[in-house]
Amino acid sequence: MPTSAQSVLAVALILLAAVVAQALQHPLPDERIYASDPWKPARGDPLGAGGFESSFRTINRRSLLNCFDLNPYVNMTVDTAGPLSDTQNVTVSISGVVNPSDHDWLGVVSPSNASTSNCPDVAVLILATGDTSELPLLCHYPVKFKLLKEDPGYLSCASSQCQVPGLFGSCLVKTCSASITFRLINIRTDIMFVLFTGGLQVPCVVDKAGPLPFANPKAPLYGHISSIDSTGTSMRLTWISGDAAPQTVQYADGSTATSTVGTFTKSNMCEPSAASDFGWHDPGFIHTAVMTGLSPSTQYSYQYGSQAVGLSPSTNFSTPPAAGDDAVTLIIFGDMGKAERDGSSIHYIQPGSISVIDAITTAVSGANVDFVFHIGDISYATGFLVEWDNFLELIQPIASRVPYMTAIGNHERDHPLSGSYYSGTDSGGECGILYYNYFQMPTPAQDKPWYSLESGPIHFTVVSTEHDWKAGSEQYMWIQADLASVNRTRTPWVVYTGHRPMYSSYDSVLNAILPAVDTEYTDAIEPLLLAGKVDLVLAGHVHNYERLCAVYQGKCLVNSTKDTTGLDTYNFTTYAAPVQAVIGMSGFQLDGFKSQVDVWSKVRISEYGYVGIQATRQKLLFEFMFVNMTVGDSFAIVK
Ligand SMILES: *[C@@H]1O[C@H](CO)[C@@H](O)[C@H](O)[C@H]1NC(C)=O
Ligand SMILES: *[C@@H]1O[C@H](CO)[C@@H](O)[C@H](O)[C@H]1NC(C)=O
Ligand SMILES: *[C@@H]1O[C@H](CO)[C@@H](O)[C@H](O)[C@H]1NC(C)=O
Ligand SMILES: *[C@@H]1O[C@H](CO)[C@@H](O)[C@H](O)[C@H]1NC(C)=O
Ligand SMILES: *[C@@H]1O[C@H](CO)[C@@H](O)[C@H](O)[C@H]1NC(C)=O
Ligand SMILES: *[C@@H]1O[C@H](CO)[C@@H](O)[C@H](O)[C@H]1NC(C)=O
Ligand SMILES: *[C@@H]1O[C@H](CO)[C@@H](O)[C@H](O)[C@H]1NC(C)=O
Ligand SMILES: *[C@@H]1O[C@H](CO)[C@@H](O)[C@H](O)[C@H]1NC(C)=O
């Protein structure tokens, strides 16, 4: 039997090999970005423009050492003594800095007692995650941070103090100040503000302030709803709390339901990974309860919590139309992720996410959105667990009011030797566990994240591109059976959706050698789409908007014609093949397009936005909306 060190090494080498093999086999956009961006620090560009985000992870690989040269005058004050409310802006003032530098930064660390001195000496394990930065390794990571120079008066010393007065009103030692505001949300664990100098490559601790606890670390927060079936009469509500005791949801004038409570530990994460190590943050408890006895297409309200932990505010929500109803309106998109509303840096920022979330919030507030579909690459927390809280807080204005349905993406699931179809490390070791807890969809089993859902005249077949879909696989058989089971009188439209696309004009230096068609996927699945007369195929993964024709085996079997209003219309009275679109333009840094235009590529737009669909029994109207809520592309399918 090998020693544990030997087996750790062996596993790590296997993982490394798998990562390399994966990169060679499936160099789709996210792998490309993942390989070149987040895990690799921008060496030699510690604070340069563009290097910052990717450098962020570098700081996670070091003990938080004190600086050699402790600045004797530094004074950090926080504008509140705490405890903190669930959402609060906190300003940290720093004075007494002798030499303001653009390498000075302020981190938000939580919990305050995180061990930052005993870094695990497992370089090879971290290397297996694709992280090639320098050692010694990480201990604990800041939740977020800002550079002090974000205070415009800092480097110019606009606000100064004289520490050592000289003769005749002169000053022998002058120091400077900065003031930095963070928007903090309740992540249950207490908050410490840590002042660093040395940039991200060689950071050392200058001073600390805090800790500040949250007033109610058990508060019931971040409630979001989802459909459990196609009746529109039962809705699942899922929320987070620091308390393990069951809580209740009160809804619809006096009904109640008691939560079932779940959580997970480090040992549930795939190893070796960020999630099981420096990216870990206590998730608290995930409460979920099903509200039953509702009517479809109806507005209700709910409140959740308990006497012990308090109650959430009352929230209005709507049930979606039942399967077979005449009309439905929904919003669908992929690859949204998150960013910080206060402009802080975090380990993985999706720069368009906030503008898209705000636009969708406006659309949902205007009523007439029955539900929302987020088709993979959900939060991009990728092993930095606290970023799920950030994401859930960001989408709450949407997901608390209309069902937020999801499909799994590579950044939720993939990890070598873990059962994912692709062997990249894209989930940071989460291996789906966080996604499955936060977004409990009506799937056959936890790690079989495929399901179908009907609402109004549409049948949705939602697949996992991250699990085997090859002919004969369990998922393949399910897709075949699901499509065969559709009653086209009840739901005349069938939409197939999953994270990765079959076709894309994604722009890459590798285009010369890489086909734009994932023939492994099309060979397996396109015949099923035709047999099931699927009308529309939607995917993300590539971060732009692209409309294809009604395509099969790379050929356009139906082209659009203009209707009397000039709208591109696909007449499906006689069925031939599904129209396809790539809709991964909801947050992640946008991708371009290759210059060659394949016959199936019809409309290409590299802008942030989301897709709105309005379907009646005769017509499915599809609109790509920019974040300013104007239409970027639209078409209809009629039958
Ligand atoms: C630190 O700054 C605060 C206000 O900015 C001031 O009240 C306090 O006296 C200072 N402390 C020291 C030790 O200088
Ligand atoms: C930090 O404090 C919490 C709560 O007091 C405790 O449960 C935890 O074990 C502590 N962690 C460390 C690393 O000391
Ligand atoms: C919920 O809807 C009711 C009735 O339409 C309205 O009076 C109330 O203000 C709404 N509540 C919220 C929090 O929007
Ligand atoms: C807190 O900060 C955010 C972003 O910096 C800002 O949008 C918000 O209005 C602030 N909230 C309060 C209560 O000041
Ligand atoms: C198909 O749906 C229609 C309309 O809902 C219903 O009347 C019919 O019985 C269904 N057919 C089957 C075979 O279930
Ligand atoms: C659709 O248009 C493409 C050219 O854009 C053409 O190659 C194809 O034959 C057309 N298909 C049909 C069914 O007309
Ligand atoms: C679609 O084509 C059919 C004939 O194939 C025709 O009868 C029908 O009017 C067309 N529909 C529209 C909306 O153009
Ligand atoms: C909306 O945004 C799109 C895409 O950025 C832009 O082309 C268009 O001019 C904008 N329209 C308005 C009215 O601002």
Automatic annotation (TrEMBL):
It comes from the Eukaryota. GO terms for molecular function: acid phosphatase activity; metal ion binding. Its main location: secreted. Residues 223-319 form the Purple acid phosphatase N-terminal domain. Residues 85-216 form the Purple acid phosphatase Fn3-like domain. Residues 577-634 form the Purple acid phosphatase C-terminal domain. It is found in: Secreted. Pfam families: fn3_PAP, Metallophos, Metallophos_C, Pur_ac_phosph_N. One of its GO terms (cellular component) is extracellular region. Keywords: Glycoprotein, Hydrolase, Secreted, Signal. It catalyses: a phosphate monoester + H2O = an alcohol + phosphate. Its EC number is 3.1.3.2. The keyword Nucleotidyltransferase does not apply. Residues 330-545 form the Calcineurin-like phosphoesterase domain. SUPFAM superfamilies: Metallo-dependent phosphatases, Purple acid phosphatase, N-terminal domain. Homodimer. Belongs to the metallophosphoesterase superfamily. Purple acid phosphatase family. This is Purple acid phosphatase. It comes from Marchantia polymorpha subsp. ruderalis.
